[in-house]
Write a structure and sequence with these properties.
CATH architecture: Beta Barrel
Radius of gyration: 16 Å
CATH topology: OB fold (Dihydrolipoamide Acetyltransferase, E2P)
Number of strands: 8
Largest sheet: 5 strands, antiparallel
Structural class: mainly beta
Strand content: 35-45%
Helix content: under 10%
Number of domains: 1
Distance between the termini: 31 Å
Length: 131
C-alpha cells in the first residue's frame, strides 16, 4: 500500500506522467532521480512520457494482496511506451484471459486505491487497451 506522504510526493509523476531526461546523456528516468546511473550527471530536464505503448510482458494476479482482493483477477504489465521507456502498471477494462504480448495500450489517470471506507483516495496511472 502506498503511504499518503509518499503518494503526495509523487503527484507530478503520477498525474502528468513526468520523467527526467539527463542533460548529459539523454537517459530517461521514471520516476525522476537525482543522479544519472549511466553518466553520473546531475542535471535533468522534465519530459512528459508518451501515453501509448505496447505490452512486452504481463502477469495475472489471481490471489491479490490486501486492499486489492476485490479486483482479482487482474493483470499487471510491463509496457514499452512509444519511443521511450518501460513502465509497469495494472491493465484494466479488458478480459485478462484475452490480454496478449504486443497489445497496444494507453495510460489513463485512475483511482488506484482507497485507505479504508473514509480514507484518502489515491490516484495514479493504469493501462487500458487502445480502441
Amino acid at each position: 500500500m502506498i503511504g499518503l506522504a509518499r503518494h503526495w510526493r509523487e503527484i507530478p509523476q503520477r498525474y502528468r506522467y513526468e520523467a527526467a531526461r539527463c542533460d548529459k546523456c539523454s537517459a530517461v528516468y521514471f520516476p525522476p532521480r537525482l543522479v544519472c546511473s549511466k553518466c553520473r550527471g546531475r542535471e535533468f530536464t522534465k519530459t512528459v512520457l508518451p501515453q501509448t505503448g505496447k505490452v512486452e510482458t504481463f502477469t495475472v494476479i489471481r490471489v491479490a494482496p490486501t486492499g486489492f482482493t476485490d479486483e482479482a483477477p487482474y493483470a499487471v504489465a510491463v509496457v514499452k511506451l512509444d519511443d521511450s521507456i518501460r513502465v509497469m502498471a495494472q491493465v484494466v477494462d479488458c478480459e485478462v484471459e484475452k490480454l496478449a504480448i504486443g497489445d497496444r495500450v494507453r495510460l489513463e489517470f485512475r483511482k488506484v486505491q482507497q485507505d479504508g471506507e473514509a480514507g484518502a483516495i489515491c490516484y495514479g496511472y493504469k493501462f487500458v487497451p487502445e480502441a
